Amino acid sequence: MQRRIFKIIKGRYTIDGAGVKLYRVFGSQYTAPLTDPFLLLDFFGSNKIEDYIAGFPWHPHRGIETITYLINGKVEHEDSEGNKGVLYPNDIQWMTAGSGIFHQEMPKPLEYKDQLDKKFSLTEVKGFQLWINLPSHLKMSMPLYRNIKGNRSPTVEIDKGKVKVVSGIYNGVQGPVNANNYVDPSYFDVKLEEEGEFEYKTKRGYNVLALVLEGKGIFEPNGNIIKPGELAIFSDGDFLKVYSENGIRFILLSGRPLKEQIAWYGPIVMNTWDQINEALLDLRNGNFIKNKAQEID
């Protein structure tokens, strides 16, 4: 059975971090039951340096995973354990906050030099940050970092299109991250040319979401068109099919819902408010970091 559109969500523009302008596709306790296990999806992007240069200075996380996928520009990142690095276009950072971590992410323009050795900047920065919920028994697990260079993420060529596999499996091709098996997330960046088609066999009971970035697409048999900035949430089914007359780019997410109680306070997502209060007490007492973060390939 082909999946059909259950609901369409339109995001909103907001300001986060130290003043970064971004488009929040979804991200609240009200949308969480619809998007479970995905909690939040932000698109940050602008060709105006003042829209992003203030960045996301030091802040804590607990109880979730954050996935940063960069399209343009660069992001300098650092955590409280001294791990640091730079994300460049097509790079991915998959961070398991687990029991708690402090980190910062600072978007920057890319600088190049022309043949006359004169500097100029590509000021456009574009990227996504996705939050995935952790099941209750992993909320206080050891923090982990996975920094993946863009050339390690496979791209599957299809007829009149291509699919970048951030995580999950598409047409037998495995993404670079061996992610949380309890959630079993798939994360694809799909581009279709004129009159291109995309089909994906989905797992029963999983939530499937699609965010259109560019162009327009038909995501179900009755011809409903999804436009840029719109998120489609699909009913259950065995497969998803997309058709585009003039080309489209969209992000596709699929995952097993946890169906657990959520207590959400800013960058901390737990199961009960007692756990939230404990996290806030840890912050006040300087005991937030329970385990040293590890960086893995």
Description:
This protein is mostly beta strands and 297 residues long. The protein has one domain: Jelly Rolls (Sandwich). It has two helices and 29 strands. The longest helix has 13 residues, at 273-285. It is globular, with a radius of gyration of 19 Å. The protein starts with a strand and ends with a strand. 39% of the residues are buried.
CATH topology: Jelly Rolls
Largest sheet, in brief, is: 8 strands, mixed
Distance between the termini: 38 Å
Tell me which CATH architecture applies here.
Answer: Sandwich
Provide a short characterization of the protein structure.
The chain is mainly beta. The chain has one domain (5-291): Jelly Rolls, CATH 2.60.120.10.
Protein topology:
Elements: E1 5-10, E2 12-16, E3 20-26, H1 32-35, E4 38-46, E5 56-61, E6 64-72, E7 74-79, E8 84-87, E9 92-96, E10 101-108, E11 110-113, E12 119-122, E13 125-133, E14 144-148, E15 155-158, E16 161-167, E17 169-170, E18 173-174, E19 186-192, E20 196-201, E21 207-215, E22 217-218, E23 225-226, E24 230-234, E25 239-244, E26 248-255, E27 263-265, E28 268-270, H2 273-285, E29 294-296
Parallel strand pairs: 14-29
Antiparallel strand pairs: 1-24, 2-3, 3-4, 4-13, 5-10, 6-9, 6-13, 7-8, 7-10, 9-14, 11-12, 15-16, 16-19, 17-18, 19-26, 20-25, 21-24, 21-26, 22-23, 27-28
Write a concise keyword list for the protein shown above.
297 residues; eight-stranded mixed β-sheet; single chain; seven-stranded antiparallel β-sheet; mainly beta; globular; Jelly Rolls
